[in-house]
From TrEMBL:
Keywords: Carbohydrate metabolism, Cellulose degradation, Glycosidase, Hydrolase, Polysaccharide degradation, Signal. This is Beta-glucosidase. InterPro entries: GH, GH_1_N_CS, Glyco_hydro_1, Glyco_hydro_1_beta-glucosidase, TAT_signal. NCBIfam families: BGL. SUPFAM superfamilies: (Trans)glycosidases. It is an enzyme of class 3 (hydrolase). Pfam families: Glyco_hydro_1. It catalyses: Hydrolysis of terminal, non-reducing beta-D-glucosyl residues with release of beta-D-glucose.
Length: 453
């Protein structure tokens, strides 16, 4: 009967953390406020031709001033967690030296307001906004940047000690190194190749490891430390044992430059062999630091790659997506709900990870206000419903996932796509800064309230 219409919903474990995620440069605006220094993203976005719509993060969502309103939005979702990032140039405007107390105060106010709303803060210390002063000295190509990052991370974690229990060192080393150092589509847009690129990647990993140690030294024993890394989730083409084995091997090798190094303290033989003369220079001590033990792993899961077993050195082969396979507005997001089942499960199995948070998942959508001002983003609702269903199934089959942070709370500055790709479950009219929850926000509120999908 009518009472049972939703009885078939799939339940998540008690205590599962439901949250939303943002990043400093994408939402804060206020780039000159209270002594903030310049970051590589200020420099990049103010270089003509770099961003699709010629926009920048000068204003973005003005969350620096409107965070109480944004916390009210989280409250109306019923969310229990919020993942935000600290802008390094607000804390150390030149990368190091004397801290800027007004920048520190902003994050203390933010975190206190979250606690008052009953929302647990999850803090990322680096979401790509490197102080421009450090880029002038080579950025991540310079080994000293790893040390500067650890100094900043330890200082900031110490300032938030007792108010924040979960810290993430960095967001998606794979993306900012791949697109910003290897490619030109993200700041600083260097287009490096070969050894120079592998060395920059190594320095970023070293920065992560040094920061893990610095955060531990600056905070109490209850503090949990991890990172948020992007994966193109490995998935077997279908559930046959040989393809599952192949996908698990891919989980290790396709992430060899990032998660595998961070969790094992070594580069795989195949990684070094494939790079050959372009391999990074490293010491055993550096590898020990990179492998510093963490308490949890954050995974940003948007899409995945299918694998089949293969009779080659790797034991696997990727199955390319035919051009007709469905994808979302952002052309890199292939619709792959399986990624949420297999990604966390196989990464946990391959690397022995005991606690995972999905630190980002979501999609862009072209849905816009209708005649009544409603945003009926049914594509995002279907995307989230399918991915969350697979996450629930994965947890039921043993994937150690403790929480989920939807990207994103708000439409925001989507890097080189500017404001042309909207990831929010809340519509933002950037001319007026008016916020309107979309259909997907109603959907997410319902998921959170029932702890089920
Ligand atoms: C992540 N790709 O970035 C970031 O952590 C967020 O800041 C970003 O807004 C979000 O995903 C949506 O894009 C990515 O091209 C950006 O593969 C691009 C890619 C992957 C992740």
């Amino acid at each position: 009967g009518p009472k049972n219409d939703t009885a078939t919903k799939r339940a998540f474990p008690p205590g599962f953390v439901w949250g939303t995620a943002t990043a400093a440069y994408q939402v804060e605006g206020a780039v000159k406020a209270d002594g903030r220094g310049q970051s590589i993203w200020d420099a990049y976005t103010h270089t003509p031709g770099k961003v699709a719509d010629g926009s920048n993060g000068d204003m973005a969502d003005d969350d620096y001033h409107r965070y109480p309103e944004d916390i009210a939005l989280m409250r109306s979702l019923g969310a229990g967690g919020y993942r935000f990032s600290v802008a390094w140039p607000r804390i150390f405007p030149n990368g190091g030296g004397r801290p800027n107390p007004k920048g520190v105060d902003f994050y203390k106010r933010l975190v206190d307001a979250l606690h008052e709303a009953g929302i647990e803060p999850y803090c990322t210390l680096y979401h790509w906004d490197l102080p421009e002063a450090l880029q002038r000295k080579g950025g991540w190509q310079n080994r000293d940047t790893a040390k500067a990052f650890a100094d900043y991370a330890g200082y900031m974690a110490g300032q938030l000690d007792g108010r924040v229990q979960h810290f993430m060192t960095m967001n998606e080393i794979s993306t900012f190194i791949g697109n910003g150092y290897g490619g030109t589509t993200m700041a600083p847009g260097l287009g490096l190749k070969g050894q120079a690129l592998a060395q920059a990647r190594h320095h970023a990993l070293l920065g992560h490891g040094l920061a893990v140690q610095a955060i531990r030294a600056a905070t109490g024993a209850k503090t949990k430390v991890g990172s948020a890394e992007g994966i193109d989730a490995p998935m077997p083409a279908y559930d046959a044992p040989e393809h599952v084995v192949a996908a698990r091997k891919a989980a290790l090798e396709e992430n060899a430059g990032y998660l595998t190094a961070m969790h094992t303290g070594r580069y795989t033989d195949l990684y070094l062999k494939t790079l050959g003369a372009d391999a990074p220079k490293f010491t055993p001590e550096e590898m020990r630091i990179i492998g510093s033990k963490t308490d949890f792993q954050g995974l940003n899961v948007y899409t995945g790659n299918y694998y089949i077993a293969a009779d080659n050195e790797r034991g696997y082969e990727a199955v390319p997506f035919p051009s007709s396979y469905p994808r979302m507005q952002s052309s890199w997001i292939q619709f792959a709900p399986d990624a949420m089942y297999w990604g966390p499960k196989l990464m946990a199995e391959a690397l022995g990870i005991s606690d995972i948070y999905i630190t980002e998942n979501g999609t862009s959508s072209t849905a816009a206000p209708d005649a009544e001002g409603r945003v009926l983003d049914i594509d995002r609702v279907m995307f989230l419903r399918q991915y969350l269903g697979e996450l629930q199934r994965g947890i039921a089959h043993g994937a150690p996932v403790r929480g989920y942070f939807l990207w994103s709370l708000l439409d925001n500055f989507e890097w080189s796509r500017g404001y042309s790709e909207r990831f929010g479950i809340t519509w933002v009219d950037f001319a007026t800064q008016k916020r309107t929850p979309k259909l997907s926000a109603m959907f997410y509120r319902d998921v959170i309230a029932s702890n089920a999908v």
